[in-house]
Amino acid sequence: MIRRVSKGFVIAIVCIMALTACGGTPQEASVPKASEAQNAGEKPSSLVIATGGTAGTYYPLGGGIANLIKEKAKTNATAQVTGAAVENMRLISKKEVDLAITQGDIADYAALGTEMFKDGAVKNLQAIGALYQETIQVVVSEKSGIKSVSELKGKKVSVGAPGSGTEVNARQILEAYGLTFNDFSTERLSFGDSAKKIQDGGLDAAFVTAGAPTAAINELAATTGVQILTIEADKMKAITDKYKYYSQQVIPSKTYPKQDAEVKTVAVKAIMSIRAELDTQLVYDITKTIYENTQPLIAINAKAKEIQTDKALEGISIPLHPGAQKYLKEKGVIK
C-alpha cells in the first residue's frame, strides 16, 4: 500500500464538539469546527476510499461513491475492502486512505482517543457528513430457538470482527441485558463468515451492524431459517439513555426473505470521514458529488435514500472538513 507524504502541513489539536441533538434541525445543530492549520491542500491524483467487507453495506456503496467521484468530480477513486469502521480510522491516521466510511460513534472514539483508540487519537480525522442509519441486527438461526437477546447465554455467538464497531455495539447492547462476552462462546467473525457458520450449523447467533438490508443476512434468510431479534422497549431505553449515538430503529417486514413481522432495534449513523490534509475545493467537489447524485447509489442499496443534505449533520461530532462546511453553508444546512 502506498503511503502519501504530506507537504508541510501542521497538525493542530482537533476540538471536538458534540451535536446538541442528533435529530435536530440543521439550524439548531452545533457544527464542529476544524482548525484551518490541518488542511494543507493535498490534491492526490487518485483517492482511496476505505469501506468494509464485501458482504456488508460499506463496500458496495463505497464503490458506487468512487464511481461518482470519477465521473462527476473528475478525480480517480477506488474502493478498498477493509475490516470496516475501526480499521478505517487507523487507515486515515496512517494516511493510507483518503476517505473512509465509518460509524459516528467509532469516529468520536477515534477523535477523542477512547475505547479501542486509547493507544492514540486520530488527529487528522474530519467529516464530510452523515450517510445513513446503520442497524444493529441480532441474527439467530431458527433451530436455535432463541427468541430474545437474554437467551444468548450459553450459546455460540459472533460479535463481529476483532476490534470492529460491531463488537463495541454488541458489548453495549448485551450490557442492557446484564450479559457480557463471558456468558457465551464468543467468536469474532466478519458478516460473511458469520452467515456461513450459521448456515453450516456452527453458530447460533451473530451481531451485524450495517444498513438493512445487508447482503450477508439477505442471502442467509433466503437459504436458511433465521430470525432477527427485537430489542425490548425497556432495554432499548436503557441503551439510548446511556449512549448518545444510538437511536430507535424499525426494520420493516419484508426487508428480508421470509421476514413477516417488523423488528424493533437500535441504530447508529454511518458517516463519510476524510483526511484533514486534503484540499478544500477537492473536498467541496466530493461533498457536492455525494449529496447531489444519490440515484446511482440507491440502485446499489436502498439505504442510500437516507443520504440527504438536510440530514448531513446528524450523528456528526467530529470536525467537518472546510470543503464540506463550504458546501453545507451554500445549501443552508449551516447558518
UniProtKB/TrEMBL annotation:
InterPro entries reported for this sequence: TRAP_TAXI
PROSITE patterns attached to this UniProt entry: PROKAR_LIPOPROTEIN
Keyword Signal tagged: yes
Signal sequence extent: 1-23
Coiled-coil intervals, chain numbering: none
Keyword rRNA-binding belongs to the record: no
Keywords, ordered alphabetically: Signal
Name used for this protein in its record: TAXI family TRAP transporter solute-binding subunit
